[in-house]
């Protein structure tokens, strides 16, 4: 596809990840590496993943790679197109709205179920500080990452590994949307103040107010992003 990285460039970028596999190469570990690369934007939406190039770069068998592709297809990060191959998925506006529906359910429930204060919000605070630092440094991709980590930290307050796993998959899929958009600053910088506000309300022990702020935050974010993404996709 025009505008996407060449297979040889993608393969070269993956060769450094081969060491991460060690002697216990598994489809799950390959999927972890590819998931991270997709989240980073190394494989943009619409990119075809060549079995030969990716498998050769990572030094894994075709069967192992196909199983990794299957896992990521199940997570809605990849899509298999008959007679064409495996591609990084291009998210639709309906997908985006559903992602936010799940986020509302999971993130707000995590805050609602906190119980009595004080709350252990160190990870939330770390993400807020990282976002503010990225904004000062004008490191907009780092700001995007910090914002994702903020929401992961919110869900981690529930103390549920299954909720954490679900959120990781949902936010990885959301990143496919951001990789299509041209200006991460526009979609993340305005929410820095709201991230800090939610943090400070949690630190004060008011989970009810924190949930209210979070629900409003997610509603506003969904409306802004769905509108901009819809216009962007209509021009593709």
Automatic annotation (TrEMBL):
From the Swiss-Prot or TrEMBL record, what is one GO molecular function term?
Answer: DNA binding
Per the database record, which ranges form the HTH gntR-type domain?
24-91
Q: Does the keyword DNA-binding apply?
A: yes
What is the name of the protein in this document? GntR family transcriptional regulator
Q: What Pfam families does the entry give? A: FCD (PF07729), GntR (PF00392)
**InterPro entries in the record, alphabetically?**
GntR_C (IPR011711), TF_FadR/GntR_C (IPR008920), Tscrpt_reg_HTH_GntR (IPR000524), WH-like_DNA-bd_sf (IPR036388), WH_DNA-bd_sf (IPR036390)
Gene3D superfamilies hit by this protein: GntR ligand-binding domain-like, Winged helix-like DNA-binding domain superfamily/Winged helix DNA-binding domain
* Record key words, sorted: DNA-binding, Transcription, Transcription regulation
Source organism superkingdom:
Bacteria
Q: Where is the signal peptide?
A: none
